[in-house]
User: What shape does this take?
Amino acid sequence: MVLGGKTMKRILVVDDEESIRFLYKEELEEDGFIVELAENGKEAIEKLPHFKPDLITLDIKMPVMDGIEALKRIREMERNLPIILCSAYGEYKHDFTTWASDAYIVKCADLTDLKCTIKRLLGLL
Amino acid sequence: MFETEEWFKLIKSVIFISSSNLSCFEKIDRILQSLSDSFASEACRFFRVEEIKEGSILYRILKTKKPFFSDELTPIEYEEFLKEEKILIQPFFVCIPVYDDSSFYGILYLGYTKSKIFSSEAIEILSLVSKEIGRILNIERLIEKKERYLSELGALYEIGKAVTSTIKLNELINLILITGQKLLRAKGGVLRIKDDTSGELNIKYISGDFNQNLLEERISKRVFSMKTPQWVHHRSEGKPSLSMMCVPLMGSNGLVMGTLTFFDLDNESNFEQRDFQLLVSMAEYVSRALENAYLYKGLEELNQRLKEAQNLLLHREKINALEELSNSIAHEIKNPLTSIGGFARRLSRLLSEGEAEKRYVETIINEVNRLEKILNDVLRYTNQGSPILKECDIVGILKESVSMVSFGNNTNGVQIIEEFEGSLPKINGDREQLKHAFFHLIQNAYQAMEGKGTIFLRVSSFRLNGTSSIRVEVKDTGKGIDPENLHNIFNPFYTNKTSSLGLGLPIVHKIITSHHGQIEVENQPGKGANFIITLPAL
Assistant: This one.
């Protein structure tokens, strides 16, 4: 899809909390992204071939398949796809299991940091 | 015939005197008198063995164990004899050595101005009487020995009673000296104990009037190193002489624990050999008792430490449980808070300034911000990971910490004075964690002064137990810490500020201790507080 001459970037938001998914969708769509939602790692992987995202925001603690497992699997499929880990937990930031991600954001109400990181990784800044 | 009657009378009177209740010396005096009468002697006396000098003529006579007559002496020997004894020696005399199987008692002497012939019967009678004198003296010696033995037992009993009456070290030491001083009739005593850390033989207790005396120190040190008791008598011109007896106090491991000295200051020393013996026997009791008291003291200290450790453990357990709980609650709250705050922001953007709804929504946003800050503090405290150590320089960290503090609009009232020692050693630390710790301390200092005052930042290096260390001080001139709260400041979930959960100092404490450092506070209520951090340096 093209808007104002630019290709609209596609973001897959993966989070088990409905309110978070809703917030991210509203905010990111407002900023001109195409947003698709997934409730856990498994659903995200299923949606990947069809949706073809330019970037993924990935929660860590999720049922069915958690973010760490999903990160590993997605990396095996898409080596260069930017992935941002978004978690309420700050303590995984220095954990080696999260090194394969491109950024690590501790969730907070102010989404400025998240949005800046997304734009930086997509080369929009 | 006449002689036999005379001998019979003499023997009768000797037996009578010997079995009387008279004292030993009176008995001998009376016997000498009877002898003098019966043998018509002008001088009848008894030389006690204690009075006879080794090598003298009397000594030689005593050792022959045979009666000795004056005509056996050459004129030269006679002159010598006169000189030796310095008492009037008659020209004619007979000496009968007094002895039994076990010892010599002395010499019975009968002197005459004119020549006298003794019949063999007379000599036999004299020998008989001398045997009786020997028997009287032997009994006397036995009684004396028994008495001394009894008094020694009594003294040891006194000491035993004293040292077993208490296990408390200080009471015991006091009792040892007081009892010892009394039993030995000493003017005073000194107990020295070896200090385990310095190895010095330190004075632990002094009784009586004793001015620090060099002689006492010298003797104690000698006794300590030689492990043998000493008894010295020191005379100096124009001063009363000083007698000192010192014994080593031996531990059951064979090492010397200390020394015990008693002294007497008199013109004539009144310590006797038996006093010295008594002190030597006493030392054994005293050593055991002291050892027990030290063991008891060690046990008490250990017990105290154990109790403290137990309390700490209980406290730690409580904190751990609390940490776990707050950690899970904080995580549970974080997600809903994110969406509440996020949507509030969205709403706020839709509303224009001045609208009442805009103010409501702004209030929600601000309150969510505050909650998020509290949650971050809780999570930072409960999830403080072990530091990732790298070589770093402390001054750089401090300067960054200062730049992180927001001094609001009021920067003029607060002055920061930096006193950094030149060429400080580097430390092994987690830069981010340390930066956070110092930021908290500086921010606290700033807040404590309410806009007016001075913050001193000092960094210096020193050596602690041979290892290099860094000391950082963050001192303010604020209102200080309420002494009532002082022991709680590093406890999590404690605060004196209504606006914060008070996790700042607990986080600082956690960071510093995980760096193997220490943090303490010097507090002057009303004048300010000084936080002192020591960290091991490279």
